[in-house]
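Deliverable D2.4 — example input (structure tokens):
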């Protein structure tokens, strides 16, 4: 392995191309990183042509319409992983990030050098009573995001509460091995390249796995976690995604990471994480400027 790991960053983006470009510049400050970018199909007309052209940056020619809570999020990550494998480049790590992330602390390459076989993934094991997200066959209308007191949120709560009481009103009948446990967590990860290859090989050889998750709720928060933590690589997992997130507290925001502002700088730095999200130049450009100047990418 090279003394400096070569990383493939796979980005899922949907807005703010100028901001995305500044993050990409942070990522490619040396020749030891390439960036693979997927643009949400809903926003291709707005973003296409605005992402920086560079030998270390590849824009995927295929775009998927990414929807919250839907298998399309998983499809996008799989597509990006396949692009990395198809490149035939010699990578050490693959890191999934979004276009609203930034590097907020120096030293990530050195950190990877010291942790060459580690998988960085935030997770928790899902208890039997909380398996409704996976064991219920969720109709498409229920797999959409609602931030207010919408009837669909009530519908979801009814199905989940019934499941906890032993009543599954819409069971997921797809095959699932009895010896497999379920895990979930934040979707972002940093994994060694052999693990990325293992995941794609497993998905291709075991079509039942994808079918099971196809109509589950928010599968991007469990699909890859469950796969890795039921694999031979389980012992290598470190329970962190190296990312600072600030979660909302109100009903409409408590399940979503909040936009970060200058007021959050001390919290971000105190976390000692290498990455943070989510940033939005339309909400607060000053906090973006602060971390760009602090950790690379300052040249526009």
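Example output (designed residues):
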């Amino acid at each position: 392995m090279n003394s400096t790991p070569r990383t493939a960053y796979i980005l899922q983006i949907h807005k703010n191309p100028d901001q995305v470009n500044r993050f990409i510049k942070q990522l490619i400050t040396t020749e030891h990183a390439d960036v693979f970018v997927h643009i949400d199909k809903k926003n291709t007309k707005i973003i296409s042509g605005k992402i920086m052209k560079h030998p270390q940056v590849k824009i995927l020619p295929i775009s998927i319409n990414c929807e919250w809570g839907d298998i399309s999020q998983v499809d996008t990550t799989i597509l990006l992983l396949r692009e990395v494998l198809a490149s035939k480049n010699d990578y050490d790590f693959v890191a999934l990030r979004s276009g609203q992330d930034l590097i907020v602390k120096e030293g990530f390459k050195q950190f990877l050098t010291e942790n060459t076989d580690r998988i960085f993934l935030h997770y928790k094991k899902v208890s039997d009573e909380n398996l409704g997200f996976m064991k219920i066959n969720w109709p498409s209308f229920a797999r959409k995001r609602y931030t207010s007191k919408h009837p669909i949120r009530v519908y979801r709560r009814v199905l989940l509460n019934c499941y906890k009481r032993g009543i599954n009103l819409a069971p997921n009948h797809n095959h699932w091995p009895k010896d497999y446990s379920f895990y979930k967590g934040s979707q972002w990860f940093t994994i060694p390249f052999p693990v990325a290859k293992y995941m794609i090989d497993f998905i291709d050889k075991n079509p039942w796995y994808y079918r099971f998750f196809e109509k589950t709720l928010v599968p991007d928060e469990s699909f890859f976690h469950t796969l890795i933590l039921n694999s031979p690589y389980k012992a290598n997992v470190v329970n962190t995604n190296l990312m600072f997130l600030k979660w909302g507290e109100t009903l409409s925001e408590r399940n979503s990471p909040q936009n970060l502002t200058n007021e959050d700088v001390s919290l971000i730095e105190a976390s000692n994480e290498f990455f943070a999200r989510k940033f939005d130049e339309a909400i607060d450009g000053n906090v973006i400027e602060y971390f760009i100047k602090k950790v690379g990418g300052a040249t526009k």
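The mean pLDDT is 92.
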